[in-house]
């Protein structure tokens, strides 16, 4: 067959899928502890949601969206991220009116961006993200960052670096924006065409440019932290002091600019230091978006969240040689000899499975020796051996693989014996 998987996507095959299940289960667990509730939104939305939510000037909206027209002539887009969808749902379902506030939500699911694929950068990737809507307490900022760091640490990752910045409130941003324009404008012709455009649409994004990263004007560009209003400064100080007291280590980097337009106030990324993790060292990112709910038609409501991709998480774990405790092995493998025994074997397996055991057998008519090999390959803790003779006597041979011990058990009592603790 010459039809191949689309570029930038991957098949997650048995053997790897168990790792996905494991980390996804961990995500559910940590969200339960922090009291975030799961929300599921569609993988496609009206294109306008992302144009308005993520922002017209962002790379995502300008270059990376999977947009199509459906048969009803609507412009739809495969979601490039989760926040806009969650906020859309928050507004549409009037979650701002529910008794429990703030509204703390999480999600896992595929996102789509038409990017240049490379290690850690896919066109379809799975994000685990959280969003807390309805509170502007710095403790929520600290909580979101703590959850993200705890999640990685509990999985065994080390060398994590939490990088934080404040993008300020409207007043701070306006002052900073003017300073940036004044700084870059006289020499903007020395910058790439993207930056020339950004100068008037969103000058903050110039700081994020990879092409011009080495330009001398980048090094002494005005720092947002020098333009923060009194309120923004105090807010940022409180976030930092809470992180200090919680023992969550961080570094402040005033050049941290996020690639989505909705951010203000606290912004952060978690990086992985050290070799072996490829060119991309960012594991996750997030921040406050206090204007987004209003932008999408809801009442003024503050929000903060973050997202990570499971792909990058698994790459990071692998780069540090961390094996996840996934057990794909069987409890029981049934080896049969003879036609009648083989038939009975299938019926017995059904009973064992109903009793809660992970159990399997041969279905290819293999010789006993090959069946034992199959049992080994499937990492069975117990091998059952049933021949026509045993069947006649109403017994079955039970072999405990770890100890090598064997015993004969009445077929009638097999399920009970095996589930009664062995
Ligand atoms: P983002 O920085 O665009 O933010 O993406 C967050 C994370 O998604 C990245 O740090 C990375 O782990 C993963 N990611 C992004 N693009 C790719 C890709 N092409 N391949 C693999 N992984 C990728 C957001 O999406 C925001 N919605 C985060 C947020 C939530 N902010 C507030 N709430």
Question: What does this protein look like?
Answer:
Helices cover 36% and strands 22% of the residues. It has helices at residues 17-33, 47-53, 59-63, 83-92, 138-154, 170-184, 193-201, 216-219, 230-246, 292-295, 310-319, 339-354, 368-377, 388-393, 414-419, and strands at 37-38, 44-46, 66-69, 75-78, 103-112, 124-133, 160-166, 251-252, 264-272, 282-288, 303-309, 332-337, 359-361, 382-387, 395-400, 406-410. The protein folds into two domains: 17-169 and 229-319, BirA Bifunctional Protein, domain 2, CATH 3.30.930.10; 332-418, 3-Layer(aba) Sandwich (Rossmann fold). The model has no long low-confidence stretch (mean pLDDT 95). By secondary structure, the chain is an alpha+beta fold. It is elongated. A hairpin with a 5-residue loop joins strand 15 (395-400) and strand 16 (406-410). Histidyl-adenosine monophosphate binds at residues 81-83, 113, 115, 120-122, 125, 127, 129, 131, 259-260, 282-287, 305-309, 311-312.
